[in-house]
Amino acid sequence: MRHATHARQTHGALYNQAVNNRELAQAIADGVIDGEVMSCSSAWLVSPMLDVFRGTGFPVAAEAFADRRYEADGTLRSRKHDDALIRDPVEASRQALTIAQQAA
């Protein structure tokens, strides 16, 4: 019998709090059911949250956004700021390339 793969992903304020908070990230990881894939957003695919999730033993899929700005601590820049979105295709392309190079 085949089982469907389910993914769980942190969003918004919870993501921004957990990305650099190991204790909160561990609480999220503890709540994930065995066999599920944990998907986690993170700037440059590196963060304490990803380390915690990877340490649990279940698969982790990291993602980053070419069209969003990140803060120095790896959190997504709030959409309250006018420059939160990268609207210039050339700049977004450069960021996408940087993300791909960081992931390799």
Tell me the strand percentage band.
5-15%
Query: What class, by secondary structure content?
Result: alpha/beta
Unreliable stretches covering 5 or more consecutive residues: none
Q: Output the helix-strand order.
A: EHHEHEH
Total count of helical runs of at least 4 residues = 4
Major β-sheet strand ordering: 1-2-3
Rounded to the nearest angstrom, the radius of gyration is 15 Å
Q: Into which percent range does the helicity of residues fall?
A: 25-40%
- Write down the overall geometry: globular
Overall mean confidence score, pLDDT: 83
The counted number of beta strands is 3
Biggest sheet statistics: 3 strands, parallel
Give the terminus-to-terminus CA distance.
Answer: 35 Å
Helix-strand layout with pairing:
Blueprint: E1 7-9, H1 12-18, H2 22-30, E2 37-41, H3 48-55, E3 60-63, H4 89-103
Parallel strand pairs: 1-2, 2-3
Helix pairs in contact: 2-3
